[in-house]
C-alpha cells in the first residue's frame, strides 16, 4: 500500500511515476494518474481526497495489466477516519502525562480512547521492528511499553511535525 511523501498532496504529480513498478504486475512504464480516492476522513463528510489513484495502462501499445492502485497521502491512515496528525497529537499528549481520556478530548480524535489505544497496542510489535531500523530503542524508563514506542517514533523522526505521517511515508505501510 504505497504512500506519498510527507506533506505531498494527492493533486501533486508523483515524481518518476513512469519509472515505478506496478504493485500488481511489477512492470514499469505504464502507470498514469487516474483520479482520486475520496472517503470519510475526519470531518470531511465523505468528500475529502485521501489518495491518488493510478492506472496501469493496457491501452494502445501499453503492456500494463489494466488494474488500479492508490498512493495514500501520508497524513491519511487507510481504512480509518482518524488522521495521522490527530493520532500523533493524542499519542504525544499521553506521552506527556495526560490521561488517555483527556488526551482524547484535547486532540479531538474520533471514536473512543480505548479503541485507539487498543489498535496502537496491537500494532506495537511491527512498529518496534521497523523503528529499530532508524533509531535505537529508548531506555526502558517509561512504564507503559507502548509509551516507549511513541518515544521511539519521536527519536526516529526528530524533524517531522507528525511522526505518524513520516512513518507511513518512510515504510510505505499503514501505521495502524
Ligand atoms: Zn500492472
Any key phrases for this structure?
2 domains; 3-stranded antiparallel sheet; 5 helices; binds zinc ion; elongated
Give the low-confidence spans.
none
Helix content class: 25-40%
Compute the separation of the termini in Å: 12 Å
- Secondary structure: number of strands: 3
Please give the oligomerization state of what you see. Answer: single chain
Describe this structure in words.
The protein has 176 residues and is an alpha+beta fold. The chain has two domains: 17-72, no CATH class; 84-171, no CATH class. It contains five helices and three strands. It has helices at residues 84-95, 100-107, 113-131, 145-156, 163-171; strands at residues 31-39, 48-56, 68-72. α3 crosses α4 (145-156). The longest helix is centred in the last third of the chain and has 19 residues, at 113-131. It is elongated and about 60 Å long. The model has no long low-confidence stretch (mean pLDDT 91). Bound molecules: zinc ion (ZN).
Helix/strand layout:
Layout: E1 31-39, E2 48-56, E3 68-72, H1 84-95, H2 100-107, H3 113-131, H4 145-156, H5 163-171
Antiparallel strand pairs: 1-2, 2-3
Helix pairs in contact: 1-2, 3-4
Zinc ion is lined by residues 22, 24-25, 27, 56, 64-65, 67.
Amino acid at each position: 500500500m504505497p504512500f506519498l511523501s510527507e506533506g505531498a498532496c494527492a493533486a501533486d504529480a508523483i515524481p518518476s511515476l513512469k519509472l515505478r513498478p506496478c504493485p500488481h504486475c511489477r512492470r514499469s512504464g505504464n502507470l498514469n494518474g487516474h483520479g482520486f480516492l475520496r472517503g470519510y476522513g475526519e470531518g470531511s463528510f465523505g468528500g475529502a481526497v485521501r489518495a491518488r489513484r493510478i492506472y496501469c495502462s493496457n491501452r494502445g501499445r501499453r503492456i500494463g495489466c489494466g488494474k488500479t492502485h492508490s498512493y495514500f497521502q501520508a497524513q491519511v491512515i487507510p481504512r480509518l477516519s482518524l488522521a495521522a496528525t490527530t493520532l500523533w497529537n493524542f499519542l504525544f499528549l499521553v506521552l506527556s502525562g495526560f490521561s488517555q481520556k483527556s488526551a482524547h478530548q484535547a486532540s479531538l480524535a474520533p471514536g473512543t480512547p480505548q479503541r485507539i489505544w487498543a489498535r496502537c497496542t496491537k500494532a506495537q510489535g511491527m512498529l518496534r521492528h521497523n523503528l529499530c531500523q532508524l533509531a535505537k530503542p529508548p531506555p526502558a524508563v517509561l512504564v507503559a511499553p507502548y509509551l516507549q514506542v511513541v518515544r521511539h517514533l519521536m527519536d526516529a523522526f526528530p524533524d517531522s511535525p507528525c511522526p505518524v505521517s513520516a512513518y507511513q511515508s518512510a515504510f510505505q505501510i499503514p501505521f495502524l
